Amino acid sequence: MELIHTCYRVTDPTASVAFYEALGFEKRRELPIRDEAVNYFLGIPGHDLPELELTYNFETPKDGYELGTGYGHVAVTVDSLDATLERLKENGIEPERPPYTVREGGSRICFVRDPDGYRIELIERA
After folding, report:
1. CATH at residue 89
2. Annotated catalytic residue, options 51, 53, 96, 121
3. Where are the beta strands (DSSP E) in 1-126?
4. Prediction pTM value
5. Using alpha carbons only, how large is the chain's radius of gyration in Å?
6. Which domain holds residue 44?
7. Within a domain: 106
8. From CA 96, how far away is CA 39, in angstroms rounded?
9. Does residue 87 fall inside a structural domain?
10. What are the residue ranges of helices labelled H in 2-100?
11. What is the Cα–Cα distance from 35 to 47, expressed in whole angstroms?
């Protein structure tokens, strides 16, 4: 068994793809789903799997999607949290709060939100 992708719905595929590319993902392909939707697949360079699947439904609700109370976040590791946050800032993406550690000597972490409000945890391993 292997995890091949995780998926969530987006309201603006151009903004969402740009956000994840700014994080360091690469866009791999688009897959139209009849006349209903388009799936955008992104991944981490140098790694075939897992991928992030962003689904844009042509009949997207006017108010967007409700994230609900069950969604937590997607986490990715970064080589340098400071360099990543600087690159994101150049793209207009700000962290929820400054980087921090949960415990002494632990990894530095920080959260950002994509254009639809999904939380992404950035982890610089200790």
Report:
1. 3.10.180.10
2. 121
3. 5-9, 26-33, 37-43, 51-57, 74-77, 100-101, 108-113, 119-124
4. 0.89
5. 15
6. 5-59+72-124
7. yes
8. 28
9. yes
10. 13-23, 81-90
11. 31
| Confidence band of 108 (pLDDT split at 50, 70, 90) | very high
Task: Give the mean pLDDT of the chain.
Answer: 94
Smallest CA-to-CA distance from 72 within 121, 30, 34 is with 121
Which strands form 5-9's sheet, in the order they lie side by side? 5-9, 51-57, 37-43, 26-33
Which tokens hold the place of 23? 């994080």
The residues with which 110 forms a beta bridge, in sequence order, are 122
Omega before 50 within 30 of 0, i.e. cis = yes
What digits encode the pLDDT tens for the residues 60-107?
888 888 888 788 899 999 999 999 999 999 999 999 999 999 999 999
Active site includes 21?
no
